[in-house]
Amino acid sequence: MTGSRVKWFVVAAAFGVILPAAAQWVDNKPPVLGPGDYPPEATEDPPDQPAKGEATGAPQQLPGAGIAFQAVPAGSVPVEVGALGSPEGPPVGTLAATGGLGEHLWSGSDRAKVEDLLRRAPLVSGDPVLRDLVRRVVLTKAAPPPGQSKKPFLAMRIERLVDAGLVPEAGALAAMAAIPNDSAFARLQAETVLIANRAADACGPATAARLTESDPFWMQLRAYCAAAAGDEATAELTRQVVKAQGRGDAVTDALIDAALAKKVPPPLTFAEPTALHVFLYQQTGAPLPEAIARKRGTPENLLVMRDTRHPPPVRLEAAERIVATGAATPGELVKLADAQDLPLARVAGAAAEAPNLPFLAGQVLLRRAAGIETRPDEKAKLIAQGLALGETYKLPILAAAFQADAIASLKPQPALGGYARSFARALMLAGRAETAAAWTGGDPVLKAVVALASGNPQRLAAIQADLSAFAVSLGKNPPDRDADRSTKALILGLADLTGAPMPADAKAAAVGVESAMWDGARPGPGLMRTIVEIAGAPERRGEAILMLAGTIRTVGLKDMAPDATFEFVRLLTDINETEPAKALAAEALAAYVPPALPVLPALPVPQAPAQ
């Protein structure tokens, strides 16, 4: 296209003159009905239309639509009556027959209830067991729950995945989606594909709205895609139209040019960075600027955290912003911690400084201090402080990962006996149950916990006599004053529910243990009955898992009454989620801290009989 024609087109576009041949380049699209734009259902026949049930062979005209349609005789096709809501495309998911939870996952559930559960479900979580359970629910290919909603169910699924930093999974779902006439979803779909750096989908059907929408985001994407396809005329024309509208963006244009050339862009500043900017930086091969990560969300901070071209302190700050989401693995964060350059003076004052720092910064300091401390008692104090910091921030599993190496470097000895249980439990939470065995000493309860958590056949064989002794202890009436009574109950019940080898007397005792009510935190009886009822309906399985996971997170395995833990493990087993059930049992054994032994009332002193 010559310069004069471009100039004429820009002037025409600025005054609202639209060329038919260029309709895809300017704001010329048919009106789109959004979720709230549907007219109310008519209560009587509109004027000048055939009465209900009356057929005519003449084409009828939709008012104002300019599209003729042929009336169909009544009864020739089935009529579906339902509430109007947000349109849904065909079911999509990355987990179907393998790894999925069934195509009827939501068919018996109420839409509003499921949406509320999904918003609160622990997908954004530092607990890997709960996070993975919810992740599988969200990724399962299944039709959405029936009911009316303001936006597609798929949009909620994608949003939750993005919030959790599960960007590749979110991008895969977005690329599969096909929901027409929903501009909000089209934007979400495009942004997710771009953040996930799916170059093959960035200019495909998943971003088709770029051809009709006039928002600067879409116009910039249109210009990039045209240039990437070698259509320089369309790319330049699009840029000129944006400039004529007073929305030109030289900074984005420079980034587009750098992405097309696969070269590092010059320093650029973005007032409001978008997903397109994130995508373009990934296409250039340059590191994403930290300034963009600060203004965006979990995916962008994850990119900065993982990019070793950024200085370690910058990466640590990015990680700190998303540490509670579970997006970064414990292994990644520990490696990043060890890459920090800390002055010796700071390390020496770690115990005093750490409580006043954010979670990651405190853990990094305490880990470094414990790593170089040679006095066992002082090392143990630093480790204990790190574990306490994890409890304060409700990130005990991550704290355990940070302190596991220091615990493993300590040689158990009588002087450190007071730390044995907390250190062993931390090692188990960090996935190092075999290392935890060194701390069991002569403690039969801790030995049984480690054996069950590790699943080691030799260790399980070695605790059989202890399990029988626990059964005898729990069967006493009145019961012994035993601080480990509820822990022994947890051990017997979970050993039984997970199929661990048990002597006959212990297995028999487990039945009574599982049916008793124990001290501790628990969901209300009504909620528990609801979860059990829902779990028994395959068509509500997704709802059951979301409710189960959310309740476990709210109550907490550390304080949960053993009978409530038994119920959750049993429910997962009953719905054929055997491996998650075992993982939950192992985590419960490691996390559980029995309630303080209640003070029994003093018995009255018998009086001597009167003489």
Give keywords.
mainly alpha; two-stranded antiparallel ribbon; 611 residues
Overview of the structural elements:
The chain has helices at residues 3-14, 111-120, 128-139, 153-163, 167-176, 183-195, 199-202, 216-228, 232-244, 250-261, 275-284, 290-295, 298-306, 312-322, 330-338, 344-348, 350-353, 359-372, 376-392, 396-409, 420-429, 433-436, 444-454, 457-462, 464-474, 485-497, 504-515, 525-535, 541-555, 562-574, 578-591, and strands spanning 60-61, 68-69. With 611 residues, it is mainly α. Among the domains are: 111-306, no CATH class; 344-439. Strand 1 and strand 2 form a beta hairpin. Helix 13 packs antiparallel against helix 14 and helix 19 (376-392) packs antiparallel against helix 20. The longest helix is centred in the middle third of the chain and has 17 residues, at 376-392. The chain starts with a helix and ends in a 20-residue tail after the last helix.
Strand content: under 5%
Helix segment tally: 31
Helix share bin: 40-55%
Q: Please count the beta strands (DSSP E, at least 2 residues each).
A: 2
Given as residue ranges, the uncertain stretches (5+ residues, pLDDT < 50) are: 1-84, 598-611
